[in-house]
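Internal ticket - ligand job 720, adenosine-5'-diphosphate:
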Amino acid sequence: MTMDWLSGYGLQLIFGAVTMLSVALVALVVGTVLGISLGTAKIYGAKPLRYSAEAYTAVVRGVPDLIVIYLIYFGGTVALTKITGQYVDINGFAAGVAALAFIFAAYAGDIFRGAIGQVPRGQTEAAHALGLSPRAAFFRIILPQAWRLALPGFGNLAIILIKQTSLISVIGLEELLRASSVISGATRQPFLVYSVAAILYLIITSIVSWGFRNAGIRSNRGFA
Amino acid sequence: MLDFSIMADAFPNLLKGAGMTGRLSILILLLGMMLAVPLAYARNAQSIWLHGPASIYILVIRGIPSLLQVFIVYYGLGQFSFVRNSALWPIFRDPFWCVIIALGLNSAAYTAEIIAGALRQVPKGLVEAAQALGLSWFQTQRKVTIPLAVRAALPAYENEVILTIKATSLASTITLLDLTGAARLEVSNTFAPYEVFLTAGAIYFCITTSLSWLLRRFEVRLSAGHRNEERRVKEFQPVLPGIPDH
Amino acid sequence: MESCSSEGGTVVMSAVTKRFGSFAALKGIGLSVDRGEKIVICGPSGSGKSTLIRCINRIEKHDGGSIVVEGCLLDHRLTNIDKVRREVGMVFQSFNLFPHMTVLENCMLAPMLVRGLKAAEAEDVAISYLRRVRIADQAAKYPSQLSGGQQQRVAIARAMCMKPKIMLLDEPTSALDPEMVKEVLNTMIELAGDGMTMICVTHEMGFARQVADRVIFMDEGAIVEEGAPEQFFRQPKTQRARDFLSQVLH
Ligand SMILES: Nc1ncnc2c1ncn2[C@@H]1O[C@H](COP(=O)(O)OP(=O)(O)O)[C@@H](O)[C@H]1O
Ligand SMILES: [Mg+2]
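stdout (structure tokens):
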């Protein structure tokens, strides 16, 4: 029993955790870029762009994550099958990352919008008065300050994202939860296995949460 | 592109699923609220024996995916023979009740955090004023603290209601035919994921959006009657504005 | 295509109007400023002083009339705006230093991004101006670690680092604690000695007396009176200016 854990199952869980973290990390990066674009579109965009961004957020907020994941996974499979003319099983990792990034972006967009709105208008004015281009003013002056204001909400989202990776198990990607299900089937000790998984999740979310709090403290340097 | 006849055919079954989604949501929110109130008071209590366990409970629940919580209740508890032999086994064997227990316990943690935050925001001066007038602790809670806290908590609670409705879709992973479960069944019969999931998504969207609109109107009416107090307690802010929390 | 000519005054505004919704903030401003001239603008709160000087570097867009700065007509053309902003420095009432950058970085940013200076050159320029406002020893600090007066002096240095031909100052001392007003005023007086064109909104009458070539009194979006400081302070021509001065001076 102990040997099984040390050799096979433990390793399987670790692999699951690594897969989970890779999904989360890629989705985080993609989702952040999308989220900043979305938040920027909502503040600076022309009307059609602004309304599309608002509609996007409303839809993602109003529909369960599982539906988004299924739509992208099964929908993607059907689309690819139509295009290529033969059955294509879409990559679970890619579908999972895409779905989670889309969801993340919707919420991150609003956090960034709020944060950008909180940067005093005088900062933009000072940047313009110094002759900085709108681009430079945004990336050098507004975004770094907005980033600091967005950090707590953003950290919250990152933790939600880590937990959401468990949903990818429904499309067969062997992340932490899926690995636990497989092992509990083999060992017939579901409570034990799921508890171990729960502890792993708890450790990871705690570390990330702690990390963001630290980042928050560091990014506050220079601010009263 | 979309085949509307598939959508029309699937619609009645999806609506049936939506009924299940509604039943689950109501029971989960009720259970969550019942547990959340004592948890919130414990969380704000001075004694470490009260706020320690409450804080740990909230921390643990919030650190673990809800789907894992559903699996622990539904698959995990059956591992123990004392559970299987107990009078409660019919409940723990039933996916319907398992989802309600798992997500109810989950919702309790988030709701408790909202309520505890709202209670903490009630200005100390108002409580002291009530006590100076001779009101008991219980009277102060009933007449001063709770009415003010409810309004502070409402925006965040509205968010929690929407998130709970969305979370009930997890029930589909343990064989329940809620809206998501019904949609999956339809897809496996028709192989038309776009039509079916878009229809299901639209139904979810209608439910959450209309409910969110209703709750917000309720909020506005509630605070309209208290304009003057609103001005007096100026630092009153909704808890966790706009940030999702699951 | 050269869109700016080099003739005429440094700043020429004629019949400039500006509305915020239905509210007319500027009602036909005519103002011509010569090279090297020092102008002080005063007037009651809400009279449009900030709006006026913010139109000069197009932080605010005017609706009617024309504004020519350093020979460039201010209109929708972005190249003109860029050119004007390069030549016009601005100091704000609330400093508006960038809080996420050190004092030195605040001063180096625009020379590098806008003038294309190398980091080393920008640093030399920044240090020299920080020295002139007597704050070079604080170069590595963040703005929040400085007092209000120090922050405003940094803001002046930051604007100077762009070597502007015209300096706009919008109530640079009115957000300061009384004991810090003097250090900033002294810096401004030194600045005036450099021969730069200055347009300054302020109620500091001592500064106006000492430095200004011309005082402009505004009320309700219009220039009500203008003249040499001595004459304006001693014998204002209009009742509105008299009322205003009696309030400011006591
Ligand atoms: N962005 C704005 N939106 C609406 N009204 C404004 C805005 N900026 C200034 N105003 C109005 O224009 C008038 C002139 O403002 P301002 O130029 O700031 O006055 P001053 O600097 O002389 O105190 C004021 O009544 C002010 O309320
Ligand atoms: Mg002003």
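Auto-summary: The CA atoms of residues 74 and 98 of chain B lie 6 Å apart. Chains B and C do not touch (no CB pair under 8 Å).
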